[in-house]
Design a protein that fits this description.
It comes from Planotetraspora kaengkrachanensis. The protein is α/β, with parallel strands linked by helices. It contains eleven helices and 13 strands. The strands form four sheets. Strands 3-2-1-4-5-6-11 form a seven-stranded parallel β-sheet, with helices on both faces. Strands 7-10 form a two-stranded parallel sheet. Strand 5 (about 130-135), helix 6 (about 155-175) and strand 6 (about 180-185) form a beta-alpha-beta unit. The longest helix has 23 residues, at about 90-115. Bound molecules: NADP nicotinamide-adenine-dinucleotide phosphate (NAP) and guanosine-5'-diphosphate-alpha-D-mannose (GDD). NADP nicotinamide-adenine-dinucleotide phosphate binds near residues 14, 81 and 187.
Length: about 350
């Protein structure tokens, strides 16, 4: 019988790539969708026709229990979150509820539906759980590169909420013997990335300038460094983690770090443009507390899971610029709010 996966965050970047990957592996894929008239649901229906949808919200415990009861999944991937770091300062409580407490609610739904108690641990055939942890938890980094044992020093309410979800996942593994793991994923991008994140903001900005739809691109801190990879590669790692013999946490990244400035140079160059003629640095787009440097040490994932990234930074940037040039040339321009930092 086909394995069944329940994915929260199905309308997001990673949800779409993960669903495609699991479908290609022969899974029945169910996506959790929220809201009464969520406009992103129709996009999922078009993009992922073989995914079945179930209603639920990470803010609503009962809805998660109902979803797990209905789907009876073998694997749950918890990708749902308020995922944009600047929003977490503006709506810190909502971020704590969705990105932090949402993990507790999902784990509890699995525990209750599986009949797991402190005295009666989980049996074979248990539901396996993946939590979308983040390199943002390392924050003000204590060492470089960052590994599974690097201490956390989160710099945003988002990072703090992710750290809560991370430790809770570990705790449910230790307390109840659940197969519950976290992937500590570094930044990963694609043509499906939200327009508010810096890579997509830059590639959309480049495409607008190239097509004569804009003349400048306003950005914040150009010196921050990130370890950027391709989302399609990273969802394979999620699946590998749940297929492993033992439940363990893994760092997933490329092991190479670039500045926002290098990203900008690469994207403008890919379109034959000179970035210095178009990019405006705007102090209003700087964050209250910055994560200056992220760089993964993905050795554990490589040696234990056989995971390797396949798309280089240059290929990723070129892929995103080309996709945005095509998108805008076809008359589509994703909504964006340029006041977000
Ligand atoms: P994304 O595109 O922002 O997607 C976030 C998803 O969360 C959306 O599907 C959204 O659904 C859903 N969501 C928001 N509030 C919810 C709620 N109350 N109940 C249920 N679902 C809710 O994020 P992503 O880039 O795909 O990232 C996936 C996960 O990985 C997130 O948890 C993110 O924090 C984490 N992560 C991402 C990266 C990265 O670089 N992309 C790195 C490390 C960790 P709606 O459409 O209904 O809003
Ligand atoms: N968004 C944005 N907009 N970022 C900018 C801008 C701008 O105009 N100018 C400079 N930056 C800098 C930010 O200050 C940050 O240092 C860096 O670009 C990356 O910002 P984002 O792309 O918004 O991503 P993030 O690193 O804050 O968070 C992403 O990666 C995390 C993993 O490390 C998100 O996907 C999180 O959900 C994820 O956990």
């Amino acid at each position: 019988m086909a394995k069944r996966a329940l994915v929260t965050g199905i309308t997001g970047q990673d949800g779409s790539y993960l669903a495609e990957h699991l479908l290609s592996e022969g899974y029945d894929v169910w996506g959790l969708v929220r809201g009464q008239a969520n406009p992103r649901v129709s996009r999922v229906r078009k993009l992922l026709q073989d995914v079945q949808l179930v209603r639920g919200d990470l803010l609503d415990q009962g809805s998660l229990i109902s979803a797990v009861e209905k789907v009876r999944p073998d694997e749950v991937y918890n990708l749902g979150a308020i995922s944009f770091v600047p929003m977490s300062w503006e709506q810190a409580e909502l971020t704590a509820e969705v990105t932090g407490m949402g993990v507790l609610r999902m784990l509890e739904a699995i525990r209750v539906c599986s009949g797991i108690t402190a005295s009666r641990g989980s049996a074979a055939g248990q539901i396996r759980f993946y939590q979308a942890s983040s390199s943002e938890m390392f924050g003000q980094v204590r060492e470089t590169p960052q590994t599974e044992s690097t201490p956390f020093h989160p710099r945003s309410p988002y990072g703090v909420a992710k750290a809560y979800g991370h430790f809770l996942t570990q705790n449910y593994r230790e307390s109840y013997g659940m197969f519950a793991v976290s992937g500590i994923l570094f930044n990963h991008e694609s043509p499906r990335r939200g327009a508010e994140f810096v890579t997509r903001k830059v590639t959309l900005g480049v495409a607008r300038i190239k097509l004569g739809l804009a003349t400048e691109l306003r950005l914040g801190n150009l010196e921050a460094r990130r370890d950027w990879g391709y989302a399609g590669d990273y969802v394979r790692a999620m699946h590998l983690m749940l297929g492993a013999g033992d439940p363990e946490d893994y760092v997933i990244g490329t092991g190479r770090t670039r500045s926002v400035r290098e990203l900008v140079e690469a994207a403008f160059t890919a379109a034959g443009l000179d970035w210095e003629q178009h990019v405006v640095c705007d102090q209003n787009l700087h964050r209250p507390a910055e994560v200056d440097l992220l760089c993964a040490d993905p050795k554990k994932a490589r040696t234990q899971l056989g995971w390797e990234p396949t798309v280089s930074f240059e290929e990723l940037v070129a892929m995103m610029v080309e996709a945005d040039l095509r998108l805008l040339a076809d008359g589509h321009d994703p909504d964006h709010d340029s006041s977000w930092p």
